[in-house]
Amino acid sequence: MSGYFKDLINQSLERTRESTLSILGLGDPGLRAHLAKQMSNRLGGEGCFLAPPVFEHTFGWEPGSITFKALEGELLSSEVISALANAPNENYRFDPNIKPYTHQLTAWRTLLAAKPQSAVITTGTGSGKTECFMIPILQDLVSEYQQTKRPLQGVRALFLYPLNALINSQRERLDAWTRPFDQNIRFCLYNGNTKESRASVRKEQKEAPNQILSREELREHPSPILMTNATMLEYMLVRQVDDPIIQKSREAQSLRWIVLDEAHTYIGSQAAELSLLLRRVVEAFGREASDIRFVATSATIADEKAEERLREYLAGLAGVPLHQVVVIGGQRQVPEIQFDGDDNGMSLTQLKSIEVGSTTAPKRFDALCKSRTAQLIRNTVVNSPKPVSLNDLIGSVGPLLVSKDAVEQQQELLEWLDLLTDTKPSDKQEPFLKLRAHLFQRMLHGLWSCVNPVCSAKSGDLKDWPFGQVYVQQRGKCDCGSPVYEAGFCDDCKTPHLTAEHAHPYLRQASPYVIDEFSLQEDDSDDSGISERAGSSLKGRAVIAPTPHEAFVSEDLDLDTAELGKLDAENSITISQADERDAICVNCGSAGKTAGGFLRKSYLGAPFYVSNAVPTVLEFCPDPSREDCDGASPESLPARGRKLITFTDSRQGTARMAVRMQQEAERSRLRGLARISHEGIKESG
């Protein structure tokens, strides 16, 4: 019996904790032990690096009642069906006997209707969302070509993608589906990488007659399918050299499709800019918005008013009448299970002992059908309109769990989920529950400490720590009621100091450096990955020393109000503080090597944690086949040939993270080789 979700989460937590404590380089074993306890295993708890995971079921999408082949003549032409069924790339080949999903059929009928309609497609990942609009567009272009019998010139379908990576991801699909039509139906991926000269891509162009590979060719013979991004589209509207693309399309009155991929990413001012851009495009191409079929793909929104909000969103964005917009969402087909038995059936331990080691376990499946706990977990997940968090599941099934402690309940429920997803009645049937998990990682935005050395909440591990209780998350007050400030460590000797912000006559907590997760790991960071520049603005900052020093001023601090110099305070302590620009380490006298001062803060951002998460995630990926490894054995390849793709919303962050991930992979491999070599020496010695 595999422990997929439980093992993945627990290993992620343990490795994140170990790597964080290691990279912080803490010299005080008591502080290290205390922080290890603060970085708890209670998912979503204070100090834990993972939020409660969110689960959604992934049973197959509801199929329609008609085969793809049967659509011939009724909705699609024989040429389109043939092109898709015999696509040269088998990854994009349609089996004529499959039954398209219900939402795909709905989209095709909606978008191919005689009167233009626009659509928001909100189906989930793996639901054939791209086919919902790509096939109607292809059918529309093929129908026009069949009528004119001439190669189509002028933009008919304009695709707007927020990222070049998404544009490039469609190249293979478009090539596979338009290749049967040769030069008659062409496409172009127009971005910063598109070559200027026709001569520079002459050889490649000859091998790809259905694709336009140069800007020169695009301007002379605009392709009916144009994929680009908002920036390039803006350039196309204002650059004189690109004017032929628009003018030739305008003369043909050809533009009739605009596709907005990942439309939910356009919000606020970005959405307003896109809306204005679309209006300029429609006018430049000599069209009316109501004559264009706008298609927007969006993440699924679980909300009672989601459909109306999405209709209003696209109508406002594209400038089309609200009555012309429809929302198309998919439904998953959940296999029915006949539950029997009034009691709770077998215990978790008893269920796990049935047909151990086999995913296909009919006896265990039957036993789960008699379990009220299994039934309640399954029903909670599949009947929820949105993904369900682990804590929400505990709220539903908590009374049926054996454990009562919060951490133990989370672990027990993860065991249940592993059991349910690992049990099928037969090889050809779905498991008892089919799930996708979403994990959310917390970053480290500093260490925080109570300023009071005699703090009543101070952990026993912190006997050598000169201040009060230490926290791994920002908070305004300690459990003892005293102010909490951020801790920093001397670059040279690691002596701790606290940093605060002057707001005369008060000493306030300074904000941590969290503007951008990727800025927590600047280019000038050392091998530890902790940036020296993070939080380096010293203006108005104060350093609180652990012991009195001649460079620091002794002042009374009211622990209730954080007011300095209040002599009549009932609850106060004397602190030694100095302006951070003039402060030095009270232990070694270091003033720092950079403009950021001598203190290093404990900031670890997304690049560090993603780099640490990747090896763990790879461990839980399935082994590829020999075909996927070009005939090589998976055991002979790095990570057993497993592959993982990461995406970020920051271009600079992506570049930095890619470099660091490669560095960390090489370092990990070298550490492993060194460990093997060392163990070999020990054995031989």
Describe the overall structure.
The protein is of the alpha/beta class and 685 residues long. Helices cover 35% and strands 13% of the residues. The chain folds into four domains: 23-44 and 446-607, no CATH class; 54-59 and 335-438; 69-328, Rossmann fold (3-Layer(aba) Sandwich); 621-684, no CATH class. The chain has 20 helices and 22 strands. Strands 13, 14, 15, 16, 17, 18, 19, 20 and 21 form a nine-stranded antiparallel β-sheet that branches. Strands 5-4-6-3-7-8-2-9 form an eight-stranded parallel β-sheet, sandwiched between helices. The longest helix is centred in the C-terminal third of the chain and has 34 residues, at 651-684.
Keywords for this structure?
DEAD/DEAH box helicase domain protein; eight-stranded parallel sheet; 4 domains; nine-stranded antiparallel sheet; single chain; alpha/beta; 685 residues; Helicase_ATP-bd; Rossmann fold; 13% strand
Overall number of strands: 22
Shape: globular
Task: Provide the CATH top-level class of the largest domain.
Answer: Alpha Beta
- Total number of distinct structural domains: 4
Radius of gyration: 31 Å
Poorly predicted sequence stretches spanning 5 or more consecutive residues: 520-529, 531-536
**By CATH's scheme, which homologous superfamily of the largest domain applies?**
P-loop containing nucleotide triphosphate hydrolases
